[in-house]
Amino acid sequence: MAPSGHKQYDVVIIGGGTTGVGTARDCALRGLRVLVVERSDLATGATGRNHGLLHSGARYAVTDGESAAECISENRILRHIARHCVEPTDGLFITLPEDDLGYQSTFIEACHRAGIDAEAIDPEEALRLEPAVNPQLIGAVRVPDASIDPFRLVSANMLDAKLHGAEVLTYHEVEGFVGSATRIEGVVLRDVTTGERRRVGAKVVVNAAGIWSSKIARMAGVEVAMCPSKGSLLVFGHRVNNMVINRCRKPADADILVPGNTISLIGTTSRRIAFDEIDRNEVTPEEVDVLIDEGSKLAPALATTRILRAYSGVRPLLADSEGASGRNLSRGMVCIDHAERDGLEGFVTIAGGKLTTYRLMAECVTDLVCSKLSLDVACTTAQRPLVGSQSEPRLTTKRGRKEFISMSAGRKGAEGRHGDSVTDMDFSHSADRALVCECEQVSVAEVKYAIESLGVKRLVDLRRRTRLGMGTCQGHMCAMRAAGLVGRATGSPEQALSDVAEFVEQRWRGVRPVAWGGSLIEAQFTQWFYDGVCGLGEMVEAANKSDIDKEQ
Amino acid sequence: MRFDTVIIGGGLGGLIGGIRLARQGQRVAIISSGKSALHFCSGSLELWGGSREEFEQLPQSHPSHPYNKVGMERLVRYSAQAKELFARAGVPLVGGLEQGDDQRFGCDHYRLSPIGVLKPAWLTMDEYVTFSGPEPKEYPRVTIVAIEGYLDFYPEFIANSLSRRGVDCRVVSVTSEALEALRESATEMRAVGIARRLQGEALDELAHRIANAVGEDAGLVVVPAVFGLKSRADYERVGEIVGAPVRVAPTVSASVPGVRMQRLLSEEFQRCGGEYILGDRVVDYTLEQGRIVSLRTANHSDMEFSANHYILATGSFFGRGLEAQPNGIREVVFGLDVECDASRSEWCGEHILETQPFQRYGVRCDERLRPSIAGQTIENLYAVGSVLAGADPVKEGCGAGVVVATAFMAAEDILSCNDK
To answer: Alpha helices, DSSP H only, in A175-307?
Structure first.
């Protein structure tokens, strides 16, 4: 163990999901020296693998009033502080002929108890508001659900945290802890790319690793019991619906359809999985069938709409919160002071919860960190808009709308994604206005900005910062274009090419479970082009081989 | 409308079959949706990417492979005929089957891929850079020209690959005033859009800029395939101005030489008297006693197309000749018998760059390339090209070879029927 000399922080946060990065922002705003470490890229866990639904809380109103109340309160806050990440679509809870219409009044009463504006509307009115909804509906309730882009939310929190002094290390894995059995004093990090190890010191280490929290806790010598639950979703090739559509019944499989950006998402299934399945879970054909069948009941058009891809995430649910004494906030989230619970100083865990309540979770754990450091600084994250949401959206004024019309396609796309951070991108040269990804209107300027400012280390990261490759073609053209730019920026064409292989492979993982129709056509073209025309497979193989030769 | 032969599909296979038949005086119609894989052509046609041994093993390893039906004697003959057919259409190709390598059957030379890999090729359009062997020995010095703001060409990748193989390689970048307006539009800066601008004086201006940028002792000058939409003479013109040998390398997305090849072949077909019906598709057909009697199309719903013979050259999934639905795979026009795995969980391989079973799917046919419906062979219908089952164009590197060989074979069979 290195005696000293390693970098020292007030707080080291483990996990680059919304909770981790949100906590980093809160800590930084309260004046703490912060480091976030993430073993992969930001938003690669449950954060990037859910519906992108900003819950009104209505879904939980009947079964978990406390969670519902938290949701509606956070929903209102995020519409303000993260408006460039939120699309205020509103939602419908529909009753179909096979459902019990009597449930509707129970549901509405529960919503009102939790403080959620829920209003029963005429089925015809529902059809007028949302023409994609199943016309056989016999009842509908309108609620303030919304669509939220989790990737953007993480970027904005990360930017704001950095602006206030926080540091972020992606592709750095925690290998162990520095300290003793009774006090954590830092972490041992391994740079995943280079294999280099280093130690960093921290007064408090925050375990915000989502479903991997139990693994991290065990490394520190304590227990956090998580219950991995896999949820699968399908991405449709265009926006089928403009409002969130739910079923007005007890939560079940495939009963939420969320519009987001250029696509719609149906989900989810729910299945307990073993811990060793977390990092390699796949969407099964049976799940795909359930999602299409059930989804078509919400919006019949889904039965005939092209499916772009399937993906699954693992919900970071707490197995049992009995052991979590003290700050047990609700059934949904838990904030554990391991000093109090296990006699281990310098280590806290924030777990459970939902995307919608990430800010509240960050506030709770930051309160705990501050109290441990005997600091008395109030949380301001509920009031201060995030980077990107600082000014009024351009489209709210006449002049703004006029300006918007004359902007280049790439700039329009970028403004939609990055809000007022678009002013940090340079669109002054025509070459930078060229589109890299035509499906999602991502320009060279936006790619350059993402590489310089959003911590893009590899090509695959670019997708999460810009939506590059998330559209209809699933990246078969833009991956190469982007690799050309990344290769030029990093000066490593070989790395860029092996990144292309990784990029198309990652896309393939999502396409494979739904490879028929248009998706199989794209897949055939992708393999023909990258493998047949370009010879990417043999190039990557040769590069791997020469690496092995070098090592030997 | 009455024809000797009606061909469904106006890509490489349909055009070769059509030209071959029309030249023999047949009255031929091609019904084309307008899509063609040639629009994405790398400049080269591949016949076999594997070893000679693997080729010889085909009857055992993949009994339904179209090459097993074509046979070696015909394959060699068709190769020579194809080269002659392309040349007459105004598409001179280098290569062939004559100088076959002992180990690598079907590999006459090597082409340069968009990322700098040297891949075996059978026939290549003569403006492209090619190498006689798997190492780039004949060009010790290469200068690659990039065009500013053009994102579908990767000089750094090519330079990196060639440099590793001992080529003295450098990259220079040029721009052109003719392309300024194009850059203003975010989506126009693509190969075909650029090629439309780079004609006449605009091309000369660019050529002079290339000459300045590459300087003396440039060695071989490699440019992206973004001009020469109308004529390959443009490459000679640029070469003259640059004062050094100029060859093109493939770009990503639409291929300018491929678009030209498609146009020249369809012009050749029409010169031979063929009827090229563009933007239409077959929607219905009449089958009587195991023979196709007539077809109906979407645009000509009021009339029937009838012929003695029909050729199906609609391509695979990408060409829309085959369609995959969650519960099965079907041939789109006639509902022909298809060779494929029944369950969709078996269609795809785990990794995209590894073998994909679906690449080999297609219609089943007899020794004369005649497909069947519910087990009954259709007497006067031939299937050619990638709609056929049995070949994996990617892993075997045989896409164009199968298309060309089966198109010639179907045409020959049709002509021999008429002789009888």
So the answer is: 213-220, 285-298
Q: Do B352 and A508 touch (CB under 8 A)?
A: yes
Q: Is residue A517 part of a domain?
A: yes
Give the one of B352, B393, B399 whose C-beta lies nearest to A505's C-beta.
B352
Closest listed residue to residue A266, CA positions, set A285, A283, A288: A288
The number of domains in chain A is 3
- What is the tens place of the pLDDT at every residue in B226-272? 999 999 899 999 999 999 999 999 998 889 999 999 999 999 999 99
A327 has pLDDT over 80: no
Q: Spell out the domains of chain B, with CATH numbers in brackets.
A: 2-101+259-276+293-415 (3.50.50.60), 129-249 (3.40.50)
Q: Does B346 touch chain A (CB under 8 A)?
A: no
> Domain limits at A107?
87-145+229-314
N-term to C-term CA, chain A:
29
Nearest-Cα residue of chain A relative to residue B358: A524
Q: Do B359 and A434 touch (CB under 8 A)?
A: no
Mean pLDDT of A66-90: 96
ipTM value: 0.95
Q: What is the dihedral of CA B207, B209, B214, B217, to 10 degrees?
A: 60
Residues B352, A509: Cα–Cα separation, whole Å: 8
Task: Note whether residue A104 is domain-resident.
Answer: yes
Q: Say if B39 is an interface residue toward chain A (CB within 8 Å).
A: no
Please report whether residue A388 resides in a domain. no
The answer to whether residues A159 and A189 belong to one domain is yes
Query: Which residues of chain B does A520 touch, with a Cβ-Cβ cutoff of 8 Å?
Result: 317, 324, 347, 358
What letter would DSSP give residue A533? Answer: I
Q: Which contacts qualify for A5-8: CB closer than 8 Å, 24 or more apart?
A: A6/A186, A6/A198, A6/A199, A6/A200, A6/A201, A7/A35, A7/A200, A7/A201, A8/A33, A8/A186, A8/A200, A8/A201, A8/A202
Mutate to test the interface with A, among B115, B158, B316, B403 (most CBs of A within 10 A): B115
B28-32 vs B2-8, strand pairing mode: parallel
How many Å apart are CA A464 and CA A16, to the nearest integer?
13
Instruction: Report residue A326's pLDDT band, with 50, 70 and 90 as the boundaries.
Output: very low
How does DSSP assign A66-126, residue by residue? HHHHHHHHHHHHHHHHTTTTEE---EEEEE-TTS-TTHHHHHHHHHHHHT---EEE-HHHH
- Range of lowest pLDDT (B80-84, B152-156, B410-414): B152-156
What is the Cα–Cα distance from A547 to B149, expressed in whole angstroms? 33
Q: Which helix (H) or strand (E) segment is B54 a member of?
A: helix B52-56
CB B318 within 8 A of CB B359: no
Q: Is the peptide bond before A304 cis (omega within 30 degrees of 0)?
A: no
- List C-alpha distances in Å: A256 to A107, A153, A253, A296: 16, 21, 8, 11
The gap from C-alpha A137 to its chain's centroid, in whole angstroms, comes to: 32
Quick one: tokens of A324?
A: 């979590």
Provide the shortest C-alpha distance from residue A201 to chain B (in Å): 41
Give contacts of A444 with chain B, Cβ < 8 Å.
151
For A411, which residue in chain B has the nearest alpha carbon? B186
CB B153 within 8 A of CB B145: no
Q: Are A473 and A418 contained in the same domain?
A: yes
Q: Do B151 and A436 touch (CB under 8 A)?
A: yes
Alpha-carbon distance of B420 to B416, in angstroms, equals: 7
Q: Which helix (H) or strand (E) holds B172?
A: strand B168-174
Q: Can you say how many angstroms the Cα of residue A322 is from the centroid of all Cα atoms in its chain?
A: 28
Instruction: Assess contact for A222 and A347: CB atoms under 8 A.
Output: yes
Whether A310 and A174 have beta carbons less than 8 Å apart is answered as no
What percent of chain B has pLDDT above 90?
88
B142-169: per-residue pLDDT in tens? 999 999 889 899 999 999 999 999 999 9
